[in-house]
Amino acid sequence: MRARIRDGDKAAFGELFDDCAKSVYNHAFRLTANWSTAEDVMALTFLEAWRLRSRIDPEGGSLRPWLLGIATNVARNVRRAARRHDDALVRLPRGEEVPDFADEVVGRIDDAERLAAVRQAYGRLRRQEQDVFALCVWAGLDYAQAAEALGVPVGTVKSRLSRARKKLAMEPPSANRQVVGDLGPEKKEEIR
Asked: CA 131, 135, 141 angle in degrees (round to 5)?
């Protein structure tokens, strides 16, 4: 069998694999203490054995010791490569820590829901009331500035803003809506 393997007989090498694969694998596992790495070492061992087959002495007994010697060297090389890889990773500059954005996403969804509710309520106001509300409440103008911007008397601004506030006060407050998963005010009181 040695001579056949040495001459490149694939069938003979297949027999060698069948006879010694389990032994090489077990040896590799004992050297690496990792099932996956042991599989890699075993595969590399037989690849290296095929590459070195011309060095096999045609006379002699089992090739198992020769394969285990190759496996020992392969395992050493794999450990060395892993150590170099780990060392290289340590030398890499640390990236910035990526913050957890889940709370921000939840906040944005909640803000979008509130904005939709505000837009809906705002949309029920008359156009003149919307203009006064936007200028006085959102833009922060006083009555005189809003009157100047709209070209109307200050009293008109006051009355339009008063009507807008009354209409919006009749709207069910969106802050009291219960969000799915929210415990609700009653349950929150129980927890406190």
From this structure: 150
Q: Which two tokens stand for residue 49?
A: 């054995």
Measure the CA angle with vertex 108, ends 105 and 114; round to 5°. Answer: 145
Residue 190 has pLDDT above 70, yes or no: no
Q: Where are the alpha helices (DSSP H) in 56-153?
A: 64-91, 102-123, 127-133, 143-150
CA distance 143 to 158: 7
Give the mean pLDDT of 30-42.
92
Mean pLDDT in residue range 3-21:
92
Residue 23 neighbours by CB distance under 10 Å: 15
pLDDT > 80? residue 150: yes
Give the per-residue pLDDT at 177: 44
On the CB side of 13, CA atoms within 13 Å amount to 17
Contact 164, 133 (CB under 8 A): yes
Q: Is the full-model pTM beyond 0.85?
A: no
Amino acid at 119: R
